[in-house]
Amino acid sequence: MIVIIMTLIGAFWGAYLAKKRKGNRLDIAQHAASSAILFCLIGLFATILIARILG
């Protein structure tokens, strides 16, 4: 669940940054994808850490 939420947050954040910097559609898509991957990995490590701590 954390991974999915973090992936969506990353995609929206990346798209927002690309729009703010006046990028075209491909720039927005690339920023959204790369940010989604980064946030997905962060969410994955957070999930593993929480699982190890709690049980």
Automatic annotation (TrEMBL):
Is Transmembrane among the key words of this record? yes
- Tell me the superkingdom of the source: Bacteria
What does the UniProt keyword field contain? Membrane, Transmembrane, Transmembrane helix
- According to the record, the segments passing through the membrane are 33-54
How is this protein named in the record? Putative secreted protein with PEP-CTERM sorting signal
Q: What is the lineage of its organism?
A: Bacteria, Pseudomonadati, Pseudomonadota, Alphaproteobacteria, Rhodobacterales
